Amino acid sequence: MQTRVIRVVHYLNQFFGGVGGENKADVGPQVRNGPIGPGRALQSALGGQGEVVATVICGDNYFAEKMEEAAEEVIQLLGSCRADVLIAGPAFDAGRYGIACGAVCKAVENKLGIPAVTGMHEENPGVDLFSRNVYIVRTGETVAGMADAISRMAGMALKLAANQDVGRPSEGGYFSRGLLVNVMAEKTGAERVVSMLLAKLKGEPFESEVTLPKYGRVEPAPRIKQMSSATIALVTDGGLVPRGNPDKIENRHATRFGAYSINLVDPLNRDGYEVVHGGYDEVFVNEDPNRLLPVDVMRDLEKEGVIGKLHDRFYSTSGLASVVKSSEKIGKGIAEQLKAGGVSGAILTST
Question: Which domains does the chain have, with CATH numbers?
């Protein structure tokens, strides 16, 4: 009896979908028949067990700027494909692409009941956002690992479509989903933990059954000794930007920040700024941007000699649903610019 061939839909961004580079990152979701680009390698990896029946393509910027709407559009496109499983990416270390892949997989599983799998490097912010919701295969950092990533994603997709056990994360090569599953074991928990402790004391290798979170530690900066001669900068994660959002800062899951001149500005003018942040009611800040970024108060302190001067730029990003890796990157980028600008200290305002 011949086994039914698994129907696979592949999700790609504009680059891997052959639409174009960054200049085409704003294109909306579209569907093409059959495999495209890395989908051809995927088809080969599936062998006779699966067929890439369609490829859905969406620009990275389009998805990042309207995530919920874009995910719904992808769902609508998938309706006629009669897919058994969705494979997204792999995204490697590409942040916007990874977030889109994770969001698509989550939406497909929740709304269509179709299993989904994607692949990312551990530094991709999509891992922090979606590893507990969808299966994310571990990949290398760059496209150089495409063949291996495609092979392992195809293998997992076939298992998921057939309702087969994918094994533990260490066995299946995917990121832990934080699930505790009861299994039959030869030794009791007490025996296993003692064995691990003894191995640790002897310097022997062992594998913990529970992955512990890792938290970074930041040493506090020394205090400012003389405020009257200090240069103070304003930084916000409240999403305040010049009208038009010139740096295209995302309203959630932000991966970038902007630096904007306030030289000779006193105070901020409501006509020149807007909020790009999806996590709070922006009405009051749009009425008076100084409520979020107190340029008016800082100018008063500057005139009174309480501070030396206000830095001629402010720095802004959106803090909604931010992931640690992206936040660290943004923070380091802002810090480098503050240091280069001779800033003594910064005031960080939030929502």
Answer: 6-172 (3.40.50.2000), 227-349 (no CATH)
